[in-house]
Design brief:
The protein contains ten helices and two strands. It has about 270 residues and is mainly alpha-helical. It has a single domain, classed as Ferritin. The chain binds fe (ii) ion (FE2). The site of fe (ii) ion has 6 residues, from helix 3, helix 4 and helix 7. The site of fe (ii) ion (FE2) has 6 residues, from helix 3, helix 4 and helix 7.
Length: about 270
């Protein structure tokens, strides 16, 4: 197997606009990592611009312009699947940016985020195939870039990124996914419900990756994980506190009870 340069390849895949190329490239990169066919090109420059490739046909709009998705029609169900598919596309980019942007982390950090990228690509494929069976494709509905905006806001520091992207925004998926899976099963789409259950299990481990590296960085810098988290939310994400929280799923993803109690208070106050 030929060797692959980690940082330049992660960057190139981040900028790749076509989903099929991105998915294939992430698979190849992760296989190379597992085969130890990777070169750590640490000197590859980090661009200040935090941009990702987006499919040219995907209409991007402000969240307030998105229609409410009602599950009694095929179109409504497809719109919901499309919204989650778009989250998975963003999630591939989030994992790639976590690899590419932040240098000098332990090797396990890169192993973790490459595995996340590979699993997000798998989620993207599962949902994409299901959407296709419903007669739709990625790009057929409008989407918003709220998740990516938080990636851009936290590009200055890996600690802020771990705090606010996996631990705040992606953790929200743990609260809501089981209910979405139940609702879509009730609406007759058991296949979608099964896919969401797979995604839910994997997302617990993805949030756990964010939690673990967040705590590693707090310990290294000798700062309090709780007050730092609260300060970062107040400074960069005051509007992102939402509930109800799933304590059970979040505990499995590495949240501690004192953090969850504090988050609950913030939700009640918001
Ligand atoms: Fe995912």
């Amino acid at each position: 197997m030929n060797t692959i340069s980690l940082f330049s390849t992660a960057h190139q895949l981040l900028l790749e606009p076509l989903a099929s190329h991105k998915v294939q490239g992430v698979t190849t990169l992760y296989d190379a990592w597992l085969s130890e066919a990777i070169v750590m090109d640490e000197n590859y420059p980090v661009s200040e611009a935090i941009v990702c490739g987006m499919p040219p046909n995907l209409p991007l709009v402000e969240p307030r312009f998105l229609k409410r998705r009602r599950l009694y029609s095929v179109e409504g169900k497809a719109a919901l699947i499309h919204a989650i598919l778009h989250i998975e596309f963003n999630a591939i980019n989030i994992a790639l940016d976590a690899v590419y942007r932040f240098r000098g982390m332990p090797m396990q950090y890169y192993a973790d985020w490459l595995k996340v990228a590979r699993e997000e690509a798998y989620h993207f494929v599962l949902l994409g195939q299901h959407l296709s069976a419903m007669g739709y494709a990625y790009g057929d509905f409008p989407a918003h870039q709220g998740l990516w905006e938080m990636v851009q806001k936290t590009g200055f520091d890996v600690l802020a990124r771990m705090a606010l992207v996996p631990r705040l925004l992606e953790a929200r998926g743990l609260d809501v996914t089981p209910d979405i899976a139940r609702r879509i099963a009730k609406a007759g789409d058991t296949k979608a419900s099964e896919i969401l259950s797979i995604i839910f299990q994997d997302e617990i481990s993805h949030v756990e990756v964010g939690n673990r590296w967040y705590h590693y960085l707090c310990e290294k810098r000798q700062i309090s994980p709780i007050t730092t988290f609260i300060d970062l939310i107040k400074e960069l994400a005051p509007d992102y506190i939402r509930g109800p929280l799933s304590f059970d799923a979040r505990r499995r993803a590495g949240f501690q009870d004192n953090e969850l109690e504090l988050l609950k208070i913030m939700v009640q106050a918001s």
